[in-house]
Amino acid sequence: QAQSDPHTLNFIDPLWSNMWYMHCGPKSTRCRSDMNVQAAWNRGYTGKNVVVTILDDGIEKNHPDLAGNYDPYASYDVNGNDHDPSPRYDASNENKHGTRCAGEVAASANNSCCIVGIAYNAKIGGIRMLDGDVTDVVEAKSLGIRPNYISIYSASWGPDDDGKTVDGPGQLAKQAFEYGIKKGRQGLGSIFVWASGNGGREGDYCSCDGYTNSIYTISVSSTTESGQKPWYLEECASTLATTYSSGAFYDRKIFTTDLRHHCTDGHTGTSVSAPMVAGVIALALEANSQLTWRDVQHLLVKTCRPAHLKASDWKTNGAGHKVSHLYGFGLVDAEALVLAAKKWTAVPVQHTCVAVTDKRPRSIPLMQTLRTTALTAACANRSDQRVGYLEHVVARISISHPRRGDLQIHLISPSGTKSQLLAKRLLDHSNEGFSNWEFMTVHCWGEKAEGEWTLEIRDIPSQVRHPDRQGKLKEWSLILYGTAEHPYNTFTSHQSRSRMLELSTPVLGPPRASLSPPQAEAPEDEEDYTAPPSHGRPNTLQTSTCHPECGNKGCEGPRADQCLNCVHFSLGNAKTGRKCVSECPLGYFGDTAGRRCRRCHRGCETCKGKSPLQCLSCRPGFYHHQDMNACMTHCPAGSYAHESERTCRKCHPSCKKCADEPEKCTVCKAGFRFAQGRCNPDCEQGTYFDSEQMKCGQCHPTCKSCVGPSREECIHCAANFHFQDWKCVPDCGEGYYPEEMRGLLHKVCRRCDDSCLSCEGSSRNCSRCKTGFTQLGTSCVNHTCSNADETFCEMVKSNRLCERKLFVQFCCRTCLLAG
Amino acid sequence: RPPHPVYTNHWAVQVLGGPAEADRVAAAHGYLNLGQIGSLENYYHFYHSKTFKRSTLSSRGPHTFLRMDPQVKWLQQQEVKRRVKR
Question: What count of CB pairs under 8 Å joins A to B?
Answer without folding.
Answer: 97
